[in-house]
Specification:
The complex is a heterodimer of chains A (427) and B (275). Chain A is mainly α. Chain A folds into three domains: 46 residues; 137 residues, no CATH class; 219 residues, MetI-like fold, CATH 1.10.3720. Chain A is built from 18 helices and three strands. Chain A has a three-stranded antiparallel β-sheet. By secondary structure, chain B is an alpha/beta fold. Chain B has one domain: Rossmann fold (3-Layer(aba) Sandwich), CATH 3.40.50. Chain B contains eleven helices and eleven strands. A seven-stranded mixed β-sheet of chain B has the order 1-11-10-4-9-8-7, with helices on both faces. The longest helix of chain B is centred in the middle third of the chain and has 14 residues. Classes of the chains: A mainly alpha (427), B alpha/beta (275). At the A-B interface, helix 14 and helix 15 of A face helix 3, helix 4 and helix 7 of B. The complex binds adenosine-5'-triphosphate and magnesium ion. The site of magnesium ion has 3 residues of chain B, from helix 2.
Chain lengths: 427, 275
Amino acid sequence: MNNIEIVQKGLKKRYAKERRFKAYGVFSIIISLSFLAFLLFDIALKAAPAFTQTYIKLDIDFSHKVLRINEKSSYTKDELFELPYHKLPSKSLYQLFPGIENRKQKKALRKLVSSGVRYNLRNMVIKNSKLIGTSKSIWVLADDDIDSLVKGLIDRNIPEADRRVKDFQIAWIDKLQLENRVESRFNINFFTSGDSREPEQAGILGALKGSLYTMLITLLLSFPIGVAAAVYLEEFAHKNNWLVDMIEVNINNLAAVPSIVFGILGLAVYINLFGVPRSAPLAGGLVLGLMTLPIIIITTRAAIKSVPPSIREAALGLGASKMQVIIHHVLPLSMPGILTGSIIGMAQALGETAPLLMIGMVAFVADIPQGFFDPSTVLPVQIYIWSDSPERSFIALTSAAIIMLLVFLFLMNLLAIILRKKFETRW
Amino acid sequence: MNNNKVELDQQLSETVGKPLINGTPKITCRDVNVFYNQDSQAIFDVNVDLAKNQILAMIGPSGCGKSTLLRCLNRMNDTIDGCSITGKISLDGEDIYSNDIDPVLLRAKVGMVFQKPNPFPKSIYDNVAYGPRLHGIATNNSELDDVVEESLIKAGLWKETKDRLNKPGTGLSGGQQQRLCIARTIAVRPDVILMDEPTSALDPIATATIEELMHELKSSYTIAVVTHSMQQAARISDRCSYFHLGRLVEVNDTNIVFTNPEHELTENYITGRFG
Ligand SMILES: Nc1ncnc2c1ncn2[C@@H]1O[C@H](COP(=O)(O)OP(=O)(O)OP(=O)(O)O)[C@@H](O)[C@H]1O
Ligand SMILES: [Mg+2]
C-alpha cells in the first residue's frame, strides 16, 4: 500500500468525523434557538393582554350638590383636592342599574370600575374647574377582574364561588356591552404610570426611569474608571511587579464575587459612610458600577492587549508620545472590544436585584423618580414584585415588564453595536 | 568546542576595515553594548560612524543583532522592558541617551521604516498626515495637502494613490504599503531614516522601486538599512557593515567589502560559505 492509498483510506473516516462535528454544532444551535423562541413566544403570549385595557363609559354628574361645594367663580386647588370624588362613578353606576338595594350587591356594582377612577376624575376637575356643575360622558378604567372577564380570561362556566367575578356582575357587564359602554383600548397607563397595588393602575414608567438613571450612574462610574485602570495596568504599570500582580489577582477575584456582597459594601460605604440617599438610583448605580468595574477592566485589558505591537511601534517611530499612541491608536483600535465588554457588564447590572436588596431598592415605589436622588426601583425588581402579587392581571403585567426589560437590553446592545461599527477597522 | 569559542572571540575582538570616517559623521556609536535583561547581551562593543547623505548597509546572519543596533539609534528599544544600553550614541555630536534629549523629539529627527509594513488602519492621507499633524509641521490644510503629496511623490506612490487618498492604507498591496510607510516617515522630514529589511516582503519590482527611492532620498537624508540580500547591499549602499553574534566584524566602503573583504568571516558570509 503506498502513501496515497493510506491517506485515501483514512479520508472517509475524517470526513465522517467532520460531518458529525458539524451536526453537533447545528444541533446545539437548534436547541438553544428553540429554547429562546419558546421563551419569547411564551412571554409575548402572556404579555399580550397587558397592552390593552377595558374602559366603561359612565355619565358623570359633576353637579355642586354631588361634589358638596358652593357655586363660586373660582376655586383654590386645595378646595378642589378635598371633594368627595369617589361618589361620582358610584352615583353614575347606581343610575345605570337602578333598584339595587342589597349592600353587598351595591358594593359589587361600585367595584366594576377601578378604585383609582376617583383620582383620575380629581385630576380632570383640578385641571378644568369649569367641569363643576356640568355632566359629561367619560370613559373610565374598569376594575382588573372586569378587565379579565372582558378579555375572556375568566371562565364563566366554573362555579360562581370559585370565580372572582360574580354572576350579577357578569350580567351587568353584558348589559353595558350591549349598550356599547364597554371598550378595549391601548394600555397607555402601562407606559405612563408608576407601580400601584391595583393592576389596572400599575405602570412600568417608574421602574423604567429608575433603571435608566441607575444605568447612567453605573456607566458613568464604571466605564471611565474601568478603562483608565485597564490602560494604566496594560500600558504604564511595570510587568512582573508584585503589586501589579496582586492587583490583577484581586480584580479577577472581584469579577467572581457574588453580587450581593457588593450590596453589603454599598450599604456600609455609600449609605452609612457617605450618606447617599437610600433606595435612590444614585446608590443603586454606584453599587452596580462597582460590580461592573472588574468586568470592564478585564475585557478592556484583553482588548488593549490585542492591538498589534506594530501599530504602536509605527506611531512611536514617528515621534508620538506614549499618551498620543494610546489616545490616537490603542484606544480606538480596542474600542470594539471595550464596548463589547462594557455591554456585557451593563447587561448583567441591568438584570441584578440581589445587590439592590441591601440598599432598599427592592421595594414598592409608586412615585415616578424625577432624578438620581428620588426613591425608585428598577425593572428586574418590578418584575419580581409583580410576579409575587396575587391578582391575576399581574401575570400579564409581569410578562409585559419582562418585554420592557428585553427592549431596554436590546436598545443598549443596539447602541453598542452602532458605536462598535464606528470603530471597527481591519488591518 | 571550547577551543573554537576562544578562537572566535579572538577573531571578533576588533572591528576591521574602516569603522570611523574622516570628516563629521551624522551618527557615531562608541563602545555600544546592548542587553536584553541582565544576562543576555545582544550587542558587544560596537564602534561605527554613519556619514551624512550616505547609505550604510547592515548585513549578517539572523539573530546577530542588526535590528537591535538599528533600534538603538532612535531609542525604540526604550519601549522594551528590561532592555538597557551602555556606551555612547551621538547624533550631530549630541549624546542621544543623555537626559536632556527627549526621545519623542529624537524620533522626529530619526525616522524608522519597519520590516513588516505597518500602516495605520486609517486612510492613505491620514497615514501620511499623521506625523506632520502630530508635530504641527503643517499649519493649515493646504500646507498639509502639499506635505502629503510631496511625501507620496518622493516615495513613488503618488501616481497609484492620488485618486484614492481616502481609501484605507491597509487596503494597499504589500509593496504599496511599505512605500506608504516610507512616505509616512519622510513626511516628518527627519534627518536620518532607519530601515529594517524594508524589502524583505516585496517582489523584485517593488524592491527595485524602493531601492531607487533610497537612492534619491540619499541626497537629503542619512540612511541606515538592514538587509539580508547581499546584492541589495552591494547595489544601494555606500558603506557596508557585517555583524556576527552581536559584534561588528567589518565595516568599509561597499565595493571594498564585496571585492576584497579583510575578515575571514565576512568573506565566508558574502561568498555564501557561512554556516
Ligand atoms: N525583545 C527582545 N527580548 C529579548 N531578546 C531579544 C529581543 N529582541 C531580540 N532579542 C535577541 O537579541 C538577539 C539579536 O536580535 P535581533 O533582532 O537584533 O537580530 P537580527 O540581526 O535583527 O536578526 P534577523 O536578521 O533575523 O532580523 C537575538 O539573539 C534575539 O534573540
Ligand atoms: Mg531583524
